[in-house]
Design a protein that fits this description.
This protein is of the alpha/beta class and 231 residues long. The chain contains seven helices and nine strands, in the order E-H-E-H-E-H-E-H-E-E-H-E-H-E-E-H.
Length: 231
């Protein structure tokens, strides 16, 4: 059986149109990647489609959950299924480019504990955002840097796309209710010696609906409050 270099956790909710595309892009990479799809009982049939894809691809695993439980808990549940020495987290909506994974693996091989795909380093950026969306993102980053000093090791602590060694998570308590900013909690709590960033162009979602809303903003503010004094 082929051993994967890295396990990629793909939380999904109504991503039926996007899932086959991102799996195809991942399979075109020059490294073996295990895909762990964690589906929150998507009414559009994403979970059933993931099972069909897994039936012909031994490097796809599927986790079915009874309802929409959130990204952080999806990542934690995906970790239980992941088998590779490195783990990555990325969105299944095609906004995160899979072609960064080989570079991230190389940096982990070279001694990095955590590699973050960053919108805010040289070569990174965003495409298709409104001024308001960009303003919200930058404000969230500034707040994180001000209140969580350990987050300052990266320019984009709010990124949803990152890779790390499994050992980084050993013994680490991550609250499953923290919302979608699980990276910030890892930066605040984990023992990290070497952290690297790679530039990412964050692209417009082509299909489906954005998951950013008032609830997620409130969850983020609660997370900052919980992390105060820990980072």
């Amino acid at each position: 059986m082929v051993k994967a270099r890295i396990s990629v956790i793909l939380p999904t909710y109504n991503e039926r149109a996007n899932l086959p595309v991102i799996i195809k892009q991942i399979r075109q990479l020059p490294i073996e990647v295990e895909c762990v799809v964690v589906d929150d009982n998507s009414p559009d049939g994403t979970g059933e489609l993931a099972e069909r894809l897994a039936s012909t691809d031994p490097l796809i695993k599927v986790v079915h959950r009874p309802k929409k439980l959130g990204l952080a808990s999806a990542v934690l549940d995906g970790l239980q299924k992941a088998s590779a020495p490195y783990v990555a987290v990325m969105d299944a909506d095609l906004q995160h480019p899979p072609n960064l994974l080989p570079s991230m693996v190389n940096l982990l091989d070279s001694g990095a504990d955590l590699v973050v795909a960053s919108r805010y380093v040289r070569g990174g950026g965003v495409v298709g955002w409104s001024i308001f969306r960009y303003f919200i993102s930058r404000c969230a980053t500034i707040l994180a840097h001000l209140l969580i000093p350990r987050s300052r090791v990266v320019k984009d602590p709010m990124s949803g796309y990152f890779a790390l060694k499994r050992s980084v998570l050993e013994g680490l308590h991550l609250d499953s209710n923290m919302g979608y900013k699980i990276l910030l909690s890892i930066l605040a709590k984990a023992k990290l010696t070497v952290v690297k960033e790679v530039p990412m162009i964050f692209r417009r979602r082509l299909r489906g609906e954005s998951k950013l809303g008032q609830k997620e903003i409130l969850n983020y503010l609660r997370l900052l409050k919980d992390l105060l004094g820990k980072g």
